[in-house]
């Protein structure tokens, strides 16, 4: 019978050293001594007969073999974590806490009726509702820290149920220079004006989504901040149509007629990052979310007044 040479703790220590950028920060994070981490990594390399790290100057860097081994080790530790979570779920009739990660583009007007219906059936479970954006939403799935994720993307290896459809439009103040153009706006013209963008909630954001070509960009954390800035005449922004219906109907903002495309269609998905360990409370909340799904183009706001 095969007996492993290494332990999960050794791999977790290696991951922490790499993620924290060195032994000192990893020791502080793990509440261990730096010497114990040095010993654990050295022993791991000796047991494997493979150099995982090489020291250059005062920093340790992954070798080519180390990069491969580290990547595979993350799958190993993640699988063990999921097994332990599954065991907890089996031993509990109802989970004490449910984490729902909601991408900022999901219409809150769809979420509130769900929560109203779920609350009487929640059996006292604590519910954490966390706003996420872009890579931060993706990490809620890939890192598995949420029980349910409402996301505009389904990462490779995961499954999702479509739950809402909406459009992103480009808007600015009626007196903004872009709004004064009679012909459809050339996308190249946008590059010369201030663009407002929403901050990615990931610790390591990856700017791979959306139109991000403007030479000037201001980053804000909420749609409301971007809307307030634009109603004062500052910048332009791509936003979900339902978030600016009131401002468009009150002529505080206008949709730009953009050459080639003035909007982007977006489908939102309900994703279970750890479907095998989904508890009964999370399943019930998912059922309510799906019951309130809206798969036709939505411009809803609280009064359900369509954008003009």
UniProtKB/TrEMBL annotation:
SUPFAM superfamilies: Periplasmic binding protein-like II, Winged helix' DNA-binding domain. The keyword Endoplasmic reticulum does not apply. Residues 6-63 form the HTH lysR-type domain. Pfam families: HTH_1, LysR_substrate. Keywords: DNA-binding, Transcription, Transcription regulation. Belongs to the LysR transcriptional regulatory family. This is LysR family transcriptional regulator.
């Amino acid at each position: 019978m095969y007996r492993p040479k290494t332990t999960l703790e050794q791999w977790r220590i290696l991951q922490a050293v790499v993620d924290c950028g060195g032994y000192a920060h990893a020791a502080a994070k793990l509440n261990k001594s730096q010497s114990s981490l040095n010993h654990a990594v050295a022993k791991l390399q000796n047991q494997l007969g493979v150099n995982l790290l090489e020291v250059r100057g005062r920093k340790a860097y992954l070798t080519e073999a180390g990069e491969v081994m580290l990547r595979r080790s993350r799958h190993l530790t993640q699988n063990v974590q999921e097994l332990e979570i599954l065991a907890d779920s089996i031993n509990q009739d109802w989970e004490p806490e449910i984490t729902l990660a909601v991408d900022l583009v999901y219409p809150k007007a769809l979420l509130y009726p769900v929560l109203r219906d779920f609350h009487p059936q929640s059996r006292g479970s604590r519910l954490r509702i966390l706003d996420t954006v872009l890579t931060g939403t993706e990490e809620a799935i890939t890192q598995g820290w949420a029980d349910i994720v409402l996301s505009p993307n389904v990462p490779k290896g995961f499954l999702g149920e479509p739950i809402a459809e909406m459009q992103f439009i480009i808007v600015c103040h009626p007196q903004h220079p872009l709004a004064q153009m009679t012909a459809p706006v050339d996308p190249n013209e946008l590059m010369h004006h201030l663009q407002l963008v929403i901050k990615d909630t990931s610790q390591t954001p990856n700017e791979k989504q959306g139109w991000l070509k403007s030479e000037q960009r201001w980053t804000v954390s909420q749609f409301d901040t971007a809307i307030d800035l634009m109603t004062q005449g500052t910048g332009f922004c791509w936003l979900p149509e339902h978030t600016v219906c009131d401002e468009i109907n009150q002529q505080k903002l206008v949709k730009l007629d953009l050459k080639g495309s003035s909007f982007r269609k977006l489908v939102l998905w309900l994703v279970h990052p750890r479907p095998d360990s989904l508890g009964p409370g999370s399943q019930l909340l998912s059922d309510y979310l799906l019951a309130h799904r809206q798969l036709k183009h939505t411009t809803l706001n609280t009064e359900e007044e369509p954008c003009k």
